[in-house]
Amino acid sequence: MAPVGPHPAVADLRRAVREALADVPEQALVLTACSGGADSLALAAALAFVAPRMRLRAGLLTVDHQLQPGSAARAATVKDLATELGLAPAEVLTVTVGKEGGPEAAAREARYAALDEAAERLGAEAVLLGHTRDDQAETVLLGLARGSGPRSLSGMAARAGLYRRPLLGLPRQTTVAACEALGLTPWDDPHNEEVRFTRVRVRRTVLPVLEKELGPGVAEALARTAAMAREDADALDEWAESAFQNCALSDIGESVKLAVAEVEKLPVAVRRRVLRRAAIAAGCPSGALSATHVLAVDRLITHWRGQKAVDLPGGLSAVRRYGTLIFAISPIA
Question: Where does the tRNA(Ile)-lysidine/2-thiocytidine synthase N-terminal domain start and stop, copy by copy (predicted)?
């Protein structure tokens, strides 16, 4: 009798992890972030299987956000499971979640700060995250609701620095099926049922309604849209970076100056990216620079009537003078 292979869901996960790590050099350390939920638990098991066969070292990080009773005990359980799977090093990263930006954003900021520190300290080549195709679909819908443009609609990147998301092409049901096949018991985070969180409402209400009214495959279609939007956004960003260098009269010192005659030749999508790039180069905090700010600066190019300077976050201003657009700390002399 021919040997029986792994469950199809398990095989899909292992294949995805192998592909994500294809360029990682032998003996490098790869870490996986694991909350104990089905997605990250299945990912940890797949990494534990794949890593030794690729001659890689593999470890696990779990973050205790200290937001729920018993969180420390759950984190310890995940760490113990890592040992059973053969993942080492295995660490619990305990963080304190602030309040800025709301609970979801604050928890995410604390989590990534802890993962960044641990990855650097341990010398990791990559950190794997368990986001699935369903997570990507939710992210696209949230970006659409915010009206944030193509970069937001592009969702989460398969790779971003040290971070890699091997499961973006797989549905959440695959990770659930893999855990069942492997005898792993995921932890269901109560926060995943809290409708006060926007993402939970999208997951529990918005996506099911879309599936019901538009037919199955909505999540897959949204994830596919994200991939195409990312390709377009990346190409526009590269174009804008080159255009910025061509338009810049100065980006050294306390101000950034752009030649208006060169900027106004650019297509609108590239021009506004150049303006955003110039503001950030002058010292404007990128997270505080909104589309509204960029549109106001754009009017200094497209609807010039001798108007006053545009105030920007970080104490900066943008002003047009004698064919030059100047970004500098306010007031501009």
Answer: 30-204
